[in-house]
Amino acid sequence: xxxxxxxxxxxxxxxxxxxxxxxxxxxxxxxxxxxxxxxxxxxxxxxxxxxxxxxxxxxxxxxxxxxxxxxxxxxxxxxxxxxxxxxxxxxxxxxxxxxxxxxxxxxxxxxxxxxxxxxxxxxxxxxxxxxxxxxxxxxxxxxxxxxxxxxxxxxxxxxxxxxxxxxxxxxxxxxxxxxxxxxxxxxxxxxxxxxxxxxxxxxxxxxxxxxxxxxxxxxxxxxxxxxxxxxxxxxxxxxxxxxxxxxxxxxxxxxxxxxxxxxxxxxxxxxxxxxxxxxxxxxxxxxxxxxxxxxxxxxxxxxxxxxxxxxxxxxxxxxxxxxxxxxxxxxxxxxxxxxxxxxxxxxxxxxxxxxxxxxxxxxxxxxxxxxxxxxxxxxxxxxxxxxxxxxxxxxxxxxxxxxxxxxxxxxxxxxxxxxxxxxxxxxxxxxxxxxxxxxxxxxxxxxxxxxxxxxxxxxxxxxxxxxxxxxxxxxxxxxxxxxxxxxxxxxxxxxxxxxxxxxxxxxxxxxxxxxxxxxxxxxxxxxxxxxxxxxxxxxxxxxxxxxxxxxxxxxxxxxxxxxxxxxxxxxxxxxxxxxxxxxxxxxxxxxxxxxxxxxxxxxxxxxxxxxxxxxxxxxxxxxxxxxxxxxxxxxxxxxxxxxxxxxxxxxxxxxxxxxxxxxxxxxxxxxxxxxxxxxxxxxxxxxxxxxxxxxxxxxxxxxxxxxxxxxxxxxxxxxxxxxxxxxxxxxxxxxxxxxxxxxxxxxxxxxxxxxxxxxxx
Length: 761
Hints:
Distance between the termini: 125 Å
Strand content: 15-25%
Helix content: 40-55%
Largest sheet: 7 strands, mixed
Radius of gyration: 49 Å
Structural class: alpha+beta
Shape: elongated
Number of helices: 22
């Protein structure tokens, strides 16, 4: 033998692949021996049944079917026993060889004792009738202090009927152990009851028809001198308790319920005398139900099948010696071991691609042989476990080879991975920062309302910094008091006092002089003080209380300074926009902005056939109010009333200060009825205002408001000036007719109003 070949053989027998293969083999051997693969292997048996064509039709066994149609013809179940007596007499005269009932008769009929007597007499006269029994579990209490003893009880037909039967056989199906998925494949042919072995109905039929006796040994069944092949089922128990006899019979199904393997005739036709007696001469007759109401439909490898059809398959198997031969566990282990050695040889002697092809060919060939053996010789060879063994062994050994080659490179990759992880985290943070800056820049630039923008800016910093409370403050001119622009997280605290608390005030001073982020964990109210800068100028500051100081660390200083700069620029733009478009006292839009917007809205509504409504309002008796309470009190009233108006509107509506105490409101996409609802809501809101006095003396002041309405296109205005004039005229009518009311401009008819007379101020 050449040196190279000797090395290959040594590698084959002593290499790590061989040792690993032995471990895999023992795993699958135990897996198979303990029956863990039992359910899946049965699925492969179902596949083989479905691949096999139906077997030759039976010439010896006939099924008399109790179907739904039979019940419809003969009446409600259970039928009088006289029907069965008539059937037995008919079959006896026809020369039937054996009659087998797959129907239980546990008790005498309570309403038809004559029919029972006729049935017993017919069975006695024929003397070749087999009847079913049912094995059940009974708890026997021998001693009150001990657990009950579980025994098996045989439920027979009623005594007089059982005494004339040729034989008895049980018809129970066990699912929990023999057929755990509910599909009938294996059935016991004998069960010990009170130390005596009771045959199944099909075994009793085979004994009676063949004239042979049966006997059970430890692991096999003899019918005469012929061995009936049985299969051992791990942990087999019957009706929830263990028994001594564990082997069962593997049913060789000859075809599905519609394949015509067995002649099937209606039982009702036999009872009514509609069948030819010569057809039953020297035949085995099996009588049983397929009616859905009798609950005897089972699942088989071919799908649903009546229990009587399953019994027919079993009887035919035993009579014609058409058995399935299951390979015993030890030959199966030998096959697994041979396949395991073959896989090691392939992997150690072939190149990777060649090995893959060889493994696939081996798996395919093995399963092909298994199917051929079943189709041609009724041999049941395990398919799933050997296939899993070959695939698993190939996969594991392939990974083992890859592992040995990659092990040396692992450490280098690990070190590189650590460096890459640090770079990735840094890159991810930068991408996140850029995304945040881009989103903030886009969002902030789109907001020109100072209130909305400042809240959005503060919310952004609180979310990014995990903050619980925060403020945005600004200082218009050096030396002036700080102005609070937005706040969050303060409930009942006086923000003005907080700003002048010693630690807060000192940090704000440092911030305005140094213009760098200040971190003060000892400060009660705020942990970070962030400067809002615009180039060389300081616009204001953001004060944040947050729980993760590292979020504002110097490592991300460029990000925070950029975000603060974007925020400061947006806030300054909003401030300038508000100076140009918003009245400083009322915080409503100025008249010039109103005029531009109503012109645009009028053109849009006219072009696209949309609606919009204009409200003109005036505070009732406001001149008299100013004369009586002073202009400072009047300014406060204007501010409060303007706030009530804004709170009554949508975000898309445009409120403006039209004159001294006169407000104008544009309601886009709002018809006249909608405008009336909004106007009356504004009127009620103002009416319920409690206006504090500047000197804080006496009770609060109250004011009312009058409103005029004009709506396009309900009011046929040819210009915005005409629409404003209509609304203004409606306002004056409201004031002249009692104030504190809403009046609609005339629609070629008398105008109407909503409200009540105003109270004296």
